[in-house]
Amino acid sequence: MPNSPSDADRPCRVRIQHRGPLLVEGPVEVELEDGSTVVSDRFRVALCTCRRSRRYPWCDTSHRERTRP
Ligand code: FES
Known about the structure:
The chain is mainly β and 69 residues long. It contains no helices and five strands. It has a three-stranded antiparallel β-sheet with strand order 1-2-5, with no helix packed on it. Strands 3-4 form a two-stranded antiparallel sheet. Bound molecules: FE2/S2 (inorganic) cluster. FE2/S2 (inorganic) cluster binds next to loops.
């Protein structure tokens, strides 16, 4: 059985998505441009890269293209 690194030894993983949020393993603390910080305790956090989120810096799926049915 291969050894797996403990959580403390393992680097934080960030996944980049084309036209989507950055997926970051949580918990995270994000420092905003104004110097304030926001915190999420979730195990995976989606950080908005499109700036359209009403919950910025968290992704609220506003990056998705709207299509009429
Ligand atoms: S990346 Fe999802 S709302 Fe901006």
